[in-house]
Amino acid sequence: ALLAAGGSGVANQGLSGCDGVTAGAVADTIVAPYNVVPNLDDDVAVVAVEPVAANMGLVPPAPGFLEGLRAECDRVGALLLFDEVITGFRLANGGATEWYGVRPDVWCFGKVIGGGLPMGAFGASREVMGHLAPLGGVYQAGTLSGNPVAMAAGLATLRAADDAVYAALDANADQLSGLIGDALTEVGIAHRIPRAGNMFSVFFGDQPVTDFASARATETWRFPAFFHGLLDGGVYPPPSAYESWFVSAALDDDAFDRIAAALPGAARAAAQASVPA
User: Stretch 250-255: mean pLDDT, rounded?
Assistant: First the structure.
């Protein structure tokens, strides 16, 4: 995989956001802002999107965004690809596709599907998958594809992920995000905690966050103090303001008590942080 312009907000310029990736390699790629339905030309082959943006903090899809992408792809005959590496089997057994009720043509999966071991997968309709060898002319292979240890871990995880597990995840995310919000409110920090099921993130500031540009406009300079305040209290949160928060079904009352004890100090540290010179 080549990173063309991850989270850059660059549109229609074919720019690379990664050293070593030439302009030629990304010349056929158009990067559009999240939560904006682009006007597609009929030479567009595929629109790839995270149905829930989870690499700029957590930014849920605006009402009508995914539906608009589906309609626009249908209009020009392009495929709609959901990158469900993060959302797949995390939001629900059917991932964001089930959660939002919009069906893509192609899916990509990772993370949860491997049960903690390295594994990725992709799928599509029989018509699309029929283009892969040996049925079609597109060659695809992998030295470690079908690794039996990773397959066993992934199957065990998916079998354990029943409705009760997802209910516990949603409840834990609700409790944790509520504790964080209460602590930040107590010290007078404006903040937003967007949610998508059991996923959320913490943005400092009171402006809506709908894409990477608005995520960058938040008070990210408060996050290091907040992070280290929690870490000093024995709680290990995501290490970046642009990472999503994930919860575990294993969180219990003792864990929440430790988190609740660490949050006031972390919130005070964030409140006392200053804008870098």
Answer: 95
